[in-house]
Amino acid sequence: MRLRENLHSLFITGPPPRAIHRLRALSHSCFSLSIASMSKGPGLYSDIGKKAKDLLTKDYISDQKFSVSTCSDTGVAITSTAVKKGELSISDVAAQYKYKNTLIDVKLDTESNISTTLTITDIVPSTKTIASFKLPDYNSGKLEVQYFHHHATFTTAVALNQQSPTVDLTATVGTPKIAFGAEAGYKTASGEFTKYNVGISVTKPDTYAAIFLTDRGDIVRASFVHHLDQLKKSAAVGEITRKFSKNMNTFTVGGLYAFDDLTVVKAKLNNQGTLGAVLQHELFPKSVLTVSTEFDTKALDQTPRFGLALALKP
After folding, report:
1. DSSP letters along 97-126, please?
2. Is residue 143 included in any domain, yes or no?
3. pTM above 0.90, yes or no
4. Which Pfam families does this chain map to (predicted)?
5. CA 176 to chain centroid
């Protein structure tokens, strides 16, 4: 496995089985349920703008994290993770098991919380059903159904809160090249809409662009990703956000460059003067070291923030 493998697929056609972000998400173990083969349609609403968002936010960490993932002969994947955030240290153990079209995730942390997610594909053709809950919080249950079609996708998610159940709906229509999407949230107890957002994405061989109208029309956000060379070793990313109620603009630019098959660097800078950088190196197959830093260029006397993560998968 190599860090730069399938960079084109990661940013343009969607995440391949061995994409960069999966190397960094080793906690999801040695298998997963995928509905990519169900549909060649526009993807979910949550996919709109995701490529630019990942480039600008993913792996920009400020804590220390260590994880080890293993996969047994019986098909059970186990991931142990320890994280230090300032003076606070937490850890968890996660197990994942796949049986036919069912994927079971269970996680136990040091706060005695047990999180469980059950994912089933094709209960009805071209669907994925996801049920999740967290103990001892009995109001944390959630049920989501996703439907995929060649020209549309739909999702319905119901929060199983006894006091105030909420329903989230999304719909996306189009093709892999251009997609139009919308989402809405509805609180059944008060009969109020908690959110309504719309988005558009356009995908070309070297460029991905998206624009959103969110926060009940108060925020407009546009983003793009563009490859700078034919080998897809480098990419530029930008995002601009306009908040009308505060008459405020936020602009962020960044980039990615793959030195070789093992080493990738990222950087970003916003109009407030915050500069961030990430270095990722594959120490050996499937095991990645991530070093991140962030500091305020307008206050160089302040101590920069540093993050370190080591993900091992023997």
Report:
1. EEETTEEEEEEEETTS-EEEEEEEE-SSTT
2. yes
3. no
4. Porin_3
5. 19
- Decide if 59 is inside a domain: yes
Structure-block tokens of residue 96 = 């994942």
Amino acid, single-letter form, for residue 157: A
Contact present, 119 and 129 (Cβ < 8 Å): yes
Which residues are registered as beta bridge partners of 234? 257
Residue 13 lies in a domain: no
Judged by phi (left if over 0) then psi (alpha if -120 to 50, else beta), residue 231 lies in alpha
**CA torsion sign, 185 to 190 to 191 to 196?**
negative
Query: Per-residue pLDDT tens for 169-219?
Result: 999 999 999 999 999 999 888 888 889 999 999 999 899 999 999 998 999
Domain containing residue 54: CATH number = 2.40.160.10
Query: Could you report the per-residue pLDDT of 52-86, keeping only the tens digit for each?
Result: 999 999 999 999 999 999 998 888 999 999 999 88
Residue 138 tokens read as 């009995």
254: amino acid identity, one letter = G
Are 256 and 52 contacting, i.e. CB atoms less than 8 angstroms apart? no
User: What is the DSSP track for 269-280?
Assistant: EETT-EEEEEEE
Domain that holds residue 112: 45-312
Task: Please indicate, yes or no, if residue 288 is contained in any of the structural domains.
Answer: yes
User: In whole angstroms, what is the distance from residue 229 CA to residue 4 CA?
Assistant: 13
Q: What is the DSSP letter of 60?
A: -
